[in-house]
Amino acid sequence: MAIGDIIVGIDIGTSKVSTVVGEVNNFGQIEIICNTSYKCSGLKKSKIINEEEIALSIAKTIKDAEDQTNLKINSAYVTIPGKYVTIVQNSITKEVKDKYSGISVRDVQNAIMQVKDIEIPEGKTLIDIVPDKITLDNGTVVTDPVGNLSSSFTISAQVILAEKDYVRQLNTVFKKAGLEIDGIVPITLAERNLILDNHELNDNIMLLDIGAGNTDIGVFEGSTFVYTNSIPLRRR
Predict the structure, then answer these.
(1) Last residue of a domain, one of 133, 162, 191
(2) 91 and 150, same domain (yes or no)
(3) If you average pLDDT over every residue of the chain, what do you get?
(4) In whole angstroms, what is the distance from residue 37 CA to residue 111 CA?
(5) Taking 60 as the threshold, does the pLDDT of residue 236 lie above it?
(6) Residues 95 and 148 in one domain
(7) Are residue 121 and residue 190 in the same domain, yes or no?
(8) Do residues 35 and 152 both lie within one domain?
(9) Which residues of 148-182 are buried (b: 16+ CB within 10 A; e: fewer)?
(10) pLDDT at 39 (0 to 100)
(11) Which domain holds residue 152?
C-alpha cells in the first residue's frame, strides 16, 4: 500500500450492509474517512437468499460514501462468513537465487506462489494467502526477509479456501451493484488487526463477532489463523 491509496471494505450482515472507506496515511496505516450502512435482509443464517436486495443495499452505501468523500468507487474488498472458509496450513523451503546478494523481493514472491500450490478440494476456490512466519536457514524468524544473507528460507502460511458457490453469488451481487471485488476476506481475519493491540497479536486468541443473526468465530495461535466458523442464532 502506498500513501494516499484508498481502500474500500464491505460487510454483508444479517440486518444491514456496511461500507467503510479508508485512506493510507503517512505511517502506512489505514485511516477511516467514511462509514456508511443501509438496512438489508437478503442474508439469512449466512446464506444469500436475495441477491437483488443485497446489491441494492450495497449500491446505496456506495452512493452515500461517494457523496461524503467526493470519490468514485469502482471496487471493494468484501467479508465472507467463517462457515464458508477452509484454512489449510502449508510451508515450503525456498533456495535463494543469489545467496551473496541476500534474499530478494522476487525470491519472496516466488515462495508465496509456491506455498499456495496445494490440491484444492472439489467445490472450493482459493481466495487468499496469509504468510505467517519466515525462518532463515540459521533458524532466525523474521517478519521481512528481504536483504538477509541466507542460502534458503522457509515460509509458513495459511492458504484460505472458500466455497465456490458462495463466491459465485458474491460476484453476481457485486456485478449487479456495479462493482468489482478486490478481495474476499474472512470476517474474523479482517477484524483481527482492528481489535487486537500489538501485545495481543502474539497471544492465543479467540474472536467472537456477535451479529444480528450469526456469531462468527476466529481462533488464532499467535499470528497463525487456525480456525473459523459461523454459528446461526437460534430463535424460539
Answers:
(1) 162
(2) yes
(3) 91
(4) 39
(5) no
(6) yes
(7) no
(8) no
(9) bebeebbbbbbbbbbbeebbeebeebbeebebebe
(10) 95
(11) 83-162
CB atoms within 10 A of CB 128: 20
β-bridge pairing 47-48 and 43-44: antiparallel
pLDDT at residue 98 tops 90: no
pLDDT digits (tens, 9 = 90+) for 26-51: 887 888 999 999 999 999 888 999 99
